[in-house]
Amino acid sequence: MASFGRFIRLALGAFALLLLVVAVPASAQQVNPTASSVKEQQLLQEFNRIQGRVSIPDQRSGVLEQPQGREWREFRNVTLRWIGGIAILGMIAAIVIFYLTVGMVRLEAGRSGRTIVRFNAFERFVHWLTATCFIVLAISGLNITFGRPLLLPLIGFEAFSEWSQWAKFAHNYLSFPFTLGVILIFLMWIGGNIPNKVDVEWAKRGGGLIGHDHPPAYRFNGGQKMIYWIVVIGGGLVATSGYALMFPFYGTGIEGMQMAQIVHSIVAVLFVAAMIAHIYIGTIGMEGAFEAMGSGEVDVNWAREHHRLWLDEQNARTGPNDGQPQPATAAAE
């Protein structure tokens, strides 16, 4: 009798297993890993995101896949490094070639011994505030893109981690005075940086960087106006996109964060390349140029060669003095 009961149980189990096999669709019985992976890739390509429904307040947690993240990672790890490397190293190479072939732009008339005020103390303060913050921001920002492949192998993991942490703090906090400086620069010098016909002629004549030509210019020549608008527009873009990254998901989703990072990084590396050229011209590239932002005063002959129209305006306000050195008797008086 006991053996008959075991037989009944085995028969019922076999019957149940048969029903299960029949109930499962044929497609589910066949597993093809290759076909499954192909379908997954097609799904990722056809949909912007794979998103489910969640009951918690943060609806962003329902996003399971965001395929644009792969494109963003490729941009950050490959494309951006190429853009930054070509822009920055290309600018440095161009400057070196120019310096070796042309050299420093000298004062042809020599120094007159007389100076004229070009920038007052407040203007110089704003300039150096913005410039100092920019240099720190540039170095700390470039560390994010190039630090791991270039700096990490040289100093090791522990030192690189410590440096990167302090660089991040400096990058975040110095962004505020930098933004203030950009705003003040825009307000201070907007009146003198509106492009005009004089700038077109200045550009046609190469800005006086080559040869002995000295095209006339007002307080800011065509090149300086270009730098001004790079600072204002570029600074505005990196500040706006940077604050979007510093305070994530306030008014934007993950796609907005990715776009902000792309804008921030591209504008930043181009900004750095442009400022390298600006620093070169303002230091070893042109004789007497650094004095404008150093002491605030420039030699009269420097003003006549590079900003003759501005010097004429200044002389018209102060009197008929044409900027020529005064006789010894007049100087003694």
From TrEMBL:
GO terms for molecular function: electron transfer activity; formate dehydrogenase (NAD+) activity; formate dehydrogenase (quinone) activity; metal ion binding. Residues 316-327 have a biased composition (Polar residues). The chain crosses the membrane at residues 82-105, 125-146, 173-190, 227-250, 262-281. Keywords: Cell membrane, Electron transport, Heme, Iron, Membrane, Metal-binding, Signal, Transmembrane, Transmembrane helix, Transport. It holds the Pfam family Ni_hydr_CYTB. Its cofactor is heme. It is a multi-pass membrane protein. Residues 312-333 are annotated as: Disordered. This is Formate dehydrogenase. NCBIfam families: formate-DH-gamm.
